[in-house]
Automatic annotation (TrEMBL):
GO cellular component: basolateral plasma membrane
Name of the protein in its database record: Solute carrier organic anion transporter family member
Chief localization: membrane
Record key words, sorted: Cell membrane, Disulfide bond, Ion transport, Membrane, Transmembrane, Transmembrane helix, Transport
Keyword field contains DNA-binding: no
Coiled-coil residues: none
Domain of life from the UniProt record: Eukaryota
Membrane topology recorded in Swiss-Prot or TrEMBL: Multi-pass membrane protein
Any one GO molecular-function label of the UniProt entry: bile acid transmembrane transporter activity
Extent of Polar residues compositional bias: 664-674
Provenance organism: Salvator merianae (Argentine black and white tegu)
Domain Kazal-like: 435-490
Residue ranges of every copy of the Major facilitator superfamily (MFS) profile domain listed in the record: 19-634
């Protein structure tokens, strides 16, 4: 009989461990998908030829999907077969990823702006600037009726809907997975198990960023086109990587991790209580504890009757309300920044999307882990009180905020583009109008301003096309093409006759590489300092709630952050970034497409300045939180002193009990399961 019990216990414990391993892979899959999607937004913008504001809508659609089912999951999730609901969620995430990649197979091959290829013939030397080229210009600016019918492609809607579905599928994984572990794991084992899950939340984004970096190096239609014929470089504003490939990898992984959950039971024997298995079976009783079964039978009205009282109690909690305001402001700043951070590195420092994604993963992720670890150990070793934790979080954030201002001085000068950032005579002159692209030197060429096919002149100035540079001939083919007899380039007197140019964008200044390294080091330092105070700061939220309010309070905190920060922030940031565009791309059949070039100075001021203002505002409620906690801390100490004075020496046991209670309140260091979501959001911010 004893041997049978041991086998049963081993069997149940093994299933819990299998669930934990499966849940770790589910965490890995969902965080990898999220990091990958966030990293390829620039590729999506270029592939579908859409503005950054629309890209922000696509990014925020994930949170919209979350909100659609979060109430349903929160209420009914624990009453259903939780492993199977998680399996369904993983499968839905896989379906969402598949829908995101589907447009690649429906749109045909990617065709980028290329004025040269339309004029090429069999000869090695071709005419560029010709009077009759106006016919070509008119054809580009006034598309035929047949072309107009196919214009305004809405294939990006597949990406939007797929991201919404991905958000729906992600919703049950964390709450149901954590509650399942909490229900059937030993109390002392639960923190360790949840800590193991956090490894997956860091490895997932790391893998996602590395895959995104690799895919961004591959041409979008690799395997179907001759790469030798491409005239694009990785830093070209028209370059689109194989964004769809990594999405399919994420889809396959999500489908795969759903399989183990289908074979796991609805309930298990709680660790350490295996000896009661036989008694439970003889009495034909479920393995779920009695109180859990009672909760499952509660009516909706019995649950909702506590909703209003809890809500009133939370909004009468001054620390909680102030923390909500702080969260919305900080999340609005961080989510907007991380959404467009790869784009910022590309535009500001002139690096490729692949390098930008790789550097973010290498410089930010490992140091964030170190910051969380140090902050958690500090809380545990020194038994930091709520008041001290609030100070630790506040001053860490403020220190990082002050250091953050150094980024404003890490400047990389705008690329010199004739008609946009400099005049055709080489004088600095910023212009947002297309008429400035014309000059006396290219008047007779009949050039179109709609085509973006840049060349770099020997004078160091970039021109948006060979025609607008006044080039009359070219030789060689592909990326090695050289343009000669360029009348606009000779205006500066760099050459004795008409100047020459090579295909592609001009290289950025050497100072840009130095500034990039400074910026990455600054990012590393800021990530370390901020993540160090993230856990103590979050514990202020947890400890400000009554035990019966914690679940509802943390859920409302997450909901508020998503509604007021997660959704609007990327949309607003995208719209602001669009205002800094100097040259818009043009859709093949007419209409404004993706931006080809930004005013890097204006981009930097908006990208860094708006978060700076939002974060400055968040320190106002932060100061009030410190004042409230200081007052409560003094009041608590005063009560203890008064109690000790009135009790005298006759009640040592009572004083000991009071002291133990105060220590429990002030020195609580356990991290509840709800912090899993917060840690993921904190990572996304950084």
């Amino acid at each position: 009989m004893e041997e049978k019990k041991k086998k049963t216990a081993f069997y149940c414990v093994t299933k819990l461990r299998i669930f934990l391993v499966a849940l770790s892979f589910a965490y890995l899959a969902k965080t990898m998908s999220g990091a990958y999607m966030n990293s390829i937004l620039t590729q999506i913008e270029r592939r579908f030829n859409i503005p950054a504001s629309l890209v922000g809508v696509i990014n925020g659609s994930f949170e919209m999907g979350n909100l659609l089912v979060i109430a349903f999951v929160s209420y009914l999730g624990a009453k259903l077969h939780r492993p199977r609901v998680i399996a369904l969620g993983c499968a839905v995430m896989g379906l969402g990823c598949f829908l995101i990649a589907l447009p690649h197979f429906l749109m045909g091959r990617y065709r980028y702006d290329n004025s040269i290829s339309l004029l090429e013939n069999s000869s090695s030397t071709i005419a560029i600037c010709l009077a009759n080229q106006s016919k070509f210009s008119m054809a580009m600016e006034h598309p035929s009726g047949e072309c107009k019918k196919s214009s305004g492609s809405l294939m990006w809607v597949f990406v939007l809907v797929g991201n919404v579905i991905r958000g729906i599928g992600e919703t049950p994984i964390t709450p149901l997975g954590i509650s399942y572990v909490e229900d059937f794991a030993k109390t002392e084992n639960s923190p360790f198990y949840i800590g193991c899950l956090q490894i997956a939340t860091i490895l997932g984004p790391l893998f996602g960023l590395m895959i995104a970096s690799y895919c961004a190096q591959l041409y979008v239609d690799f395997g179907f086109v001759n790469l030798a014929d491409l005239t694009l470089s990785l830093t070209d504003a028209r370059w689109v990587g194989a964004w769809w490939l990594g999405v399919l990898v994420c889809a396959a992984l999500n489908f795969f991790v759903a399989i183990p959950f289908l074979f796991l039971p609805k309930s298990l024997v709680k660790e350490g209580e295996e000896e009661n298995v036989d008694l439970g079976r003889k009495g034909n009783k479920t393995l779920v504890p009695v109180e859990k079964a009672a909760q499952a039978k509660m009516k909706i009205r019995e649950i909702t009757k506590d909703f209003v009282p809890y809500l009133k109690s939370l909004f009468h909690n001054r620390v909680y309300v102030l923390f909500l305001i702080t969260t919305v402001l900080q999340f609005s700043a961080w989510i907007g920044m991380i959404t467009f951070m790869p784009k910022y590195l590309e535009q500001q420092f002139g690096i490729s999307a692949s390098d930008a994604i790789f550097l973010i993963g290498v410089y930010n992720l490992p140091i964030i882990c170190v910051g969380y670890l140090i902050g958690g150990l500090m809380m545990k070793k020194f038994k930091i009180s709520t008041y001290k934790a609030a100070h630790l979080g506040f001053w860490s954030s403020l220190t990082e905020y002050l250091i953050y201002f150094s980024a404003f001085f890490m400047i990389c000068k705008n690329v010199s583009v004739a008609g946009l950032t400099v005049s055709y005579k080489g004088i600095d002159q910023l212009s947002y109008v297309e008429t400035s692209l014309y000059a006396n030197c290219n008047q007779g060429c009949g050039c179109s301003t709609k085509v973006w096919d840049p060349i770099c002149g020997e004078n160091g100035i970039e021109y948006i096309s060979a025609c607008l540079a006044g080039c009359e001939a070219s030789n060689k083919t592909g990326k090695t093409m050289v343009f000669t007899n360029c009348s606009c380039i000779s205006v500066l007197g760099v050459s004795s006759g008409n100047g020459s140019a090579v295909l592609g964008q001009c290289s950025r200044e050497k100072d840009c590489d130095t500034m990039l390294h400074y910026y990455l080091i600054l990012s590393l330092v800021c990530s370390l300092i901020y993540s160090f105070g993230a856990m103590p700061g979050y514990m202020v939220l947890i400890r400000s709630l009554k035990p019966e309010e914690k679940s509802f309070g943390v859920g409302l905190h997450t909901l508020t952050a998503r509604v007021f920060a997660g959704i609007p922030s990327p949309i607003c940031f995208g719209a602001m970034i669009d205002t800094t565009c100097l040259k818009w791309g043009t859709k093949r059949c007419g209409g404004e497409g993706a931006c080809r070039m930004y005013d890097s100075d204006a981009y930097r001021l908006l990208y860094l300045g708006v978060p700076a203002v939002l974060r400055a505002l968040c320190y106002i409620p932060g100061v009030f939180i410190l004042l409230i906690l200081r007052k409560e801390s003094k009041h608590l100490v005063g009560e203890n002193i008064e109690m000790e004075a009135t009790e005298g020496e006759n009640a040592p046991a009572e004083r000991k009990d009071v002291a133990e209670q105060n220590d429990d309140v002030q020195n609580c260091t356990s991290t509840p399961p709800e912090t899993t979501d917060a840690i993921e959001v904190d990572f996304k911010k950084n």
